[in-house]
Amino acid sequence: MTTPALVFGFLLATLYGSLFHFWKGGSLSRLLADIVMAWLGFWGGHALAISEEWHWGMVGVLHVGAATLGSLALLSLGHILAPPTNSSD
Question: What's the pLDDT tens digit per position in 41-52?
Answer without folding.
Answer: 999 999 999 999
